[in-house]
Design brief:
The radius of gyration is 17 Å and the shape is elongated. The two termini are about 15 Å apart. Strands 1, 2, 3, 4, 5, 6 and 7 form a seven-stranded mixed sheet that branches. The chain contains five helices and seven strands; from the N terminus they run αααββββααβββ. By secondary structure, it is of the alpha+beta class. The chain has one domain: STM4215-like.
Length: about 160
């Protein structure tokens, strides 16, 4: 079993199905919430969440058990319109992602994914504006976050 795939797939499913206002954010969730594929940004949508694998610190947890912190990097993108409107959309989208994983029970357990003890979402960077090459006009505002998924895993010998 690939435990990282399990938690990554649960993260995607939760984002698509349990994120507050998901119908507002995602017209085509399969194209807007992806694994390690930023080519979707040219798809013409206003909101994106792209997941990338990150660190996975582990510690012994007793006989036949270890504890792992699966870290998933989440890059969120909000299409630029005008400064006040873009920031309003950006903060609302970020808040709903924060609430899903840090407040809602379904998110804090990755919808009861086996072995998941808790999750914690943190902002890894300040928001940044993305422009086309050679232009100063922003296309997206983006922020990188980290989802830490704390698991207890039984291993077989």
């Amino acid at each position: 079993m690939n435990y990282y795939d399990v938690v990554e797939n649960a993260t995607i499913a939760l984002t698509k199905n349990h994120l507050d206002n998901s119908a507002t954010y995602f017209k085509k969730p399969e194209k807007q919430v992806t694994k390690s594929d930023d080519s979707v940004l040219s798809g013409g949508y206003d909101y994106f969440l792209i997941l990338y694998p990150a660190a996975f610190p582990t510690t012994p947890g007793g006989t036949g058990v270890f504890e792992v912190n699966w870290v998933i990097t989440l890059d969120m993108f909000v299409r630029y319109s005008t400064p006040p409107v873009t920031w309003q959309h950006f903060k609302a989208f970020r808040n709903d992602i924060f609430t899903l994983f840090n407040i809602k029970k379904v998110g804090r357990t990755l919808d009861r994914t086996d072995g998941v003890r808790d999750v914690l979402l943190t902002g890894e960077s300040d928001p940044v504006a993305y422009s086309e090459e050679g232009s100063d006009d922003p296309i997206f505002y983006s922020q990188r976050m980290q989802l830490n998924v704390f698991c207890k895993v039984n291993h077989q010998t």
